[in-house]
Amino acid sequence: MYKGATNLKDLKYLQYFEDLLQETDNELVRQAQDEGNLAIGYTCYHMPEVLLNLKGCFSVRVRAPRTGSIDIATYYMSNYTCEFARSLLERAIEGGYQFLDAFAGVDACSAMNRCYEHMEALNTCTKEKFFMTHLDIPYKVEDYNVNQMVKQTRLRFLDVLHETYGIDTSDDALREAVERHNEVCRIISEIGDLRKLDNPPITGYEFHVLCLASYCCPKYLIVDKLKETLDEIKNRQVDEKPWFRARVSVVGSEIDDLDFTRLLEEAGAMVVSDRYCFGSTPGREEIVLEEGKDVLEQICRHYMTTSQCARYMADEKVIGRRELANKLALEYGAEGIIYEQMKFCDFWAFERALVSHIMENDYGWPVLSIDRPYNVHNSGQLRTRFQAFVEALEIKRIQKEKKGAS
Known about the structure:
By secondary structure, the protein is an alpha/beta fold. The protein has 2 domains: 23-139, Rossmann fold, CATH 3.40.50; 174-405, Rossmann fold, CATH 3.40.50. Helices cover 49% and strands 12% of the residues. It has 14 helices and 8 strands. Strands 2-1-3-4 form a 4-stranded parallel beta sheet, with helices on both faces. The protein has a 4-stranded parallel beta sheet with strand order 6-5-7-8, sandwiched between helices. Helix 10 (258-266) links the parallel strand 5 and strand 6. Helix 3 (71-77) packs across helix 4 (83-93), helix 7 runs antiparallel to helix 8 (204-216) and helix 8 packs antiparallel against helix 9 (219-234). It is globular and about 70 Å long.
């Protein structure tokens, strides 16, 4: 178990959550299914997570932990597609997602579309009532786009879920799901906000574990442990001197690999904000529902409005992503920003290359820009780049302090 700061007392459930994250089909997933609940897999924030957690269901954000060779998936999808999509297909071909009762996909990027297509064509999930669905995701947020999303979500997912499994998809059921979802969001957000402190009682790695578990495990089976962990962190004793050498914000594409954060914090950086897919921003904001308005429309609008995916190309979304990255870095006391992307990610390749320069030149942030494989393992190249970035931030801080003292 790696937790980052050696001066902090071990969290009671950290190893437990780490062990759960070693498998997609973990012991809590099996327990929830044994209790009669349906496991619904999904890959993307565009699919409203809360709808996969209606009574009788639970969401599993699909990953491929401990991925080795992806040669078979590469044969189907080529070398020049995102390793995340190829890793998921490889795991599916191996039979790793046979436990799923349904798969809620979205047509958000070409690589993931091909992954879904191959999963269906190769019949990688064989339960009798299993279904896979796809929602088409728009490029901007206008009323007509939201209406389109609502109709698709109703017809392609909720109606199919009700007809296939008899799940209650009424407005009352949706509201109950939102309440349960918001409880987990409040806990994760409160833990995450502790990173704003000058000397946080939690490391970025520990937060990554807790946040990731909230996506990958049945929420009703971990919510009590998350509450207890929050209380434990609040009462944690910290040394007078912080364990880290620099504070950084991470922005970019999908990160479900704990080794990424481990490598970064071993280099002396504290990850204080996580604006990436599988992170807490977006993903762990509460959904606010108003009385008298359509519930499903409010849910879909929430996800479309809060999404920070580089797929959204309207001017207000493009500028909004930069503004949010700047806001989070300031709010959480970051000294620099790391822009990262999965290799061959079409949308984030353009975003990272352009915006990493904009954040440095227009906003004044020190920026490290990297592309990376799906699983970083113990990448010597990444470790070296992380160490160099931390040293550069330290030098910048020392120079600023000297200038202020003179």
